[in-house]
Amino acid sequence: MKWTPILRQLENKHLYDGILTNFVNQNQNIVNSTVFQGTLYEYTVMRELHGKLFMDNVNKVGGAHDGGVDITSTWNINKIHKRVENLMDLSKLYPRDKIPKKIKLHSGTVNPLIHKIAKGENINLDVLVQCKAFNKSKVTPREFRELIGTFNSMVPRSKWKSSVMIMSSPHLLTPDGLKLINSLDISLIYLRIGQLTKNSDNSFDLANSGKLLNYYENETANRLLLGCGINECLKLGLCNDKE
Q: Rounded CA gap, 223 and 152, in Å?
């Protein structure tokens, strides 16, 4: 899939706010439309994926034929692990000899990636993201059932263990939604990312809104990423500084 020049620019974190500003300025005539709000939220999510979760190749693919996927990305787990390891010894928090090389979950198994990282292997996960900017309340099982269908239709079974599905919304999960995603054999992450808010002059507050508020891994993703340092990275407030 080809990237447009604007999407190539998204690889530089310093350009995200500029791209968001340009998008707003160039679309003032449709600022109240659902198309504008949805696209603005997708760009906001892309900013947080790259800046907070160290994802690269962040590609906006939303459209009439997106198959339910708004963003795709590549997640180099070694990159985030290395940044955290520079500040703390993750092997003390997660002793390797205490982490099984294969963990049975539900009807399948998960091989924690930390063992491959420890052997010097480079880990790149394929990431599919669906954005739900317009939900008025907590995210329910219905939205996740649709997401499961999207994953099954777009990811062959042979790539399940190297792929992660993400849903992003400004809202919280319902207890039933949480129960459902924890029963899945696919790696699913839920991100609560706020929408951009307007200032009194009708500009958008890029500095203080549109931020990653909550990060949640379902049981499969949690075991897959155990010991890799993602939660520690978020707690430390580290940012992707790729130029």
A: 20
